User: What shape does this take?
Amino acid sequence: MELWFTERQTKSLAISMRVRQNLHRERSPYQEIAVLETEQYGKLLVIDDAVMLTTADEFVYHELIAHLPMFTHGNVERAAVIGGGDGGTIRELLRHRSLQEAYLLELDERVVRVCQEYLPEVASGLSDARVRMEFGDGIKRIAEFESYFDLVVVDSTEPVGPGEVLFSREFYDLVRRSLRPGGLMVAQTESPFVNRQLMAQTREIIGGAFPETYVYLGSIPTYPSGLWSFTIGSAGPDPRQADLAAIAKMTADWPLRYYSAQVHSAALSLPPFVQEIYR
Assistant: This one.
């Protein structure tokens, strides 16, 4: 007998993976959490029947959402990750020596604990002394900070249910308020193939809270369409002006598998069909 997991990514699109075994499944106070072992993509984290990550391709997402804004800023000392309970974004942020403090603001503590047990290669950084984990409403918590962070990463789920408010103007105004002068934020902003309207709306919303916005892309096979976008809201730094030579030198000994100085520039070079979304 063959076992398969299928995610209905849109009303007209699905992705299926052959499953070797069910490693864990539970219902937390907020959502259903499962970890499966798949044939093609290794371990798979599923929340409410949606793919969150696989161990085969998570490095693309986490390296892009962490390193491109970190090197854009150049000297991040304090960062916050809203969501991101799997720990992958924190793991990548911690590679930067300038980072002194990283807050993980995650709604559901069970996501963190499940990932620490079943996905330790992703959650490995959460035990670092620089990390402060807080569980509950990340929006209420970020509202308590003023001019504190250099970088805020919105590592959110899709804009449905608890994640819907993370795509609102009110939320990004709070994020802007939490940043120090010259700070910036980055959010995952879905697929240019299947979420064009959402991408346009999100950039407009972020642009209302920040003087400059920048969109960049990465290839993540298990996310809808395989092409994924990220949007930066900046109060100063321009990712196109990052010091590529410094990036290459600093990352030379890092075990990175996707991000590099060349990828930094390439990710910001949007193809015409993506540029059309913002006209």
